[in-house]
Amino acid sequence: MRVYVPLTLSGLAAAHRAGEVGPGPLTAYAVTPALREWYVSDDIEELEYAALNRAASASLRLVAGDPAVARRRVVVAVDVPDGDAVADPDHILDASSLGEVTIASAVALAEAAAVHVDSDEADKDVTAAAAALGAADLGDDDAQFTVDGAEDHELLWFGIQEIPNLIG
């Protein structure tokens, strides 16, 4: 199963040093039954893209929570055995946790399929979105518009061999 683990650039650097994403438990995003029902599609690529975007939103929350980290969303795509990614049955109907799964233990970075990171051009919008996230959560429409501005940026794809250049 492909899962998408939200990180920050400093989190990616730590994973690179350790050789693994972790420690567990890890929150990740995947194509779950609830995500399939919400997205209403049978196209696995579209569903995986939706899971990637859910992880990018979670990465934005990590960025917002730490003013010291670079203002870039980071998502690591990792393949894990199906049974390793478990959705919380208490949150299946919670819209904020659609596609969310838990992985009990760390995952070897060598198992990663790719790393997705914001481009330099997204920096201003991600910075503004991180600052506006709290107000958006409280229902401020203008703040939500700012958060949506970051989501308009597509994450770039990088192979895991390119991680040293990303964190360098």
Textual characterization of the structure:
With about 170 residues, the protein is of the alpha+beta class. The chain contains 6 helices and 9 strands; from the N terminus they run βαββααβββββααβα. The chain has helices at about 10-20, 35-40, 45-65, 125-135, 140-150, 165, and strands at about 1-5, 20, 25-30, 75-80, 85, 100-105, 105-110, 110-115, 155-160. It has a 4-stranded antiparallel β-sheet. α3 (about 45-65) crosses α4 (about 125-135) and α4 packs antiparallel against α5 (about 140-150). The two termini are about 30 Å apart. The mean pLDDT is about 90.
Unreliable stretches (pLDDT < 50, length at least 5) are none
The count of helical stretches stands at 6
What is the succession of H and E elements? Answer: EHEEHHEEEEEHHEH
Number of strands: 9
Output the strand order for the largest sheet. 1-4-8-9
Major sheet size, sense and barrel closure:
4 strands, antiparallel
Beta-strand portion reads 15-25%
Helix amount = 40-55%
Which shape, going by the Cα principal axes?
Answer: globular
C-alpha Rg, in Å? 15 Å
Structural class: alpha+beta
Roughly what is the average pLDDT, rounded to an integer? 92
**Termini gap:** 30 Å
